[in-house]
Every structure is written in structure tokens, then in C-alpha cells.
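Morning!

This is the sequence you dropped in the shared folder:
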Amino acid sequence: MALRLLEETGIDPEYRQKGLLYLNVDDADKALQWARQLGKPLERVGADFVHAKEPGVAMADDSALWMPTLGSVRNPRLAKALKARLAAMPQVTLKEQCEVSGFIQQSGQVKGVETSQGPLTAERIIVCGGAWAAQLLSLLNVQLPVRPVKGR
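The structure's back. C-alpha cells below.
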């Protein structure tokens, strides 16, 4: 998707697939089982592997896990690229600085949203509220286990 956005908008979201090392894992067997169930690559690695990836890390044992497929993206650049791509689509209308305060329901189905700029209706509603999605969805009695946390 990141490559497609770059091609279509000229904006690079800077997706980089570099993998992720999990160090000093207490429940490695449980994590490995989880990965197998989901079909995700995850493997136990030793201190030599960790040192090759991260020379400044010293490990006393072989309690590290490696997930090679994990990647990262620059969120501000991704948002900019998505906005540019959506703005180029004639069937899409972007509304910014428009707070959603509730849902418009009809016969048990969500038909739109109540906003600070008035009601908006649509065939489909996608909630993209990040850490605040749970609060908004609770208005529909949908429990989403997401909460805001401060990054480091």
C-alpha cells in the first residue's frame, strides 16, 4: 500500500520493513504459539543474532524473539499521502475539523453521523478515531478495548 500511495501521490509514507526484536521475553512459548496460530513468522534467536542486528545490546541468555515481517511507517507522511489520494477521488468528500459526536441510526443500522458541522449520511461508516474510537463506539454499545496512552 505504501508503494502504491507513493506512485499515486508522490508522497512517500516511508514504510520500512526491518523486523522487530523482542528482548528478555518471559512468555516466549506463549508468544510463539500465538504467532503459529495467526500464521505470523516469529522465531527464537540467540545473543549472536541480536548482536548482529543491534551491536549495542548485550544479552545474558537466549530469551529473544525475532519477527522479520514487522515494519514501521511515518504516520504524518502516511496521513498526508492518504489525504492526497482521497482528495483525488471524485466520489469522496473530505471534512476536516469536523468533530463527530454521535451516530444517526435507522432500523438498527448506522446511516450517518452527527457532527459539529451538522448531520452527514452515507452508505458505509468507518470509524477511524484512533485511541478515541472506543469512546465513540460505546454510543452504539460496541466495546472496543482501545485506550489512549502516551508514547515514549
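Headline: The chain has five helices and eight strands.

More detail when I'm at my desk.
O.
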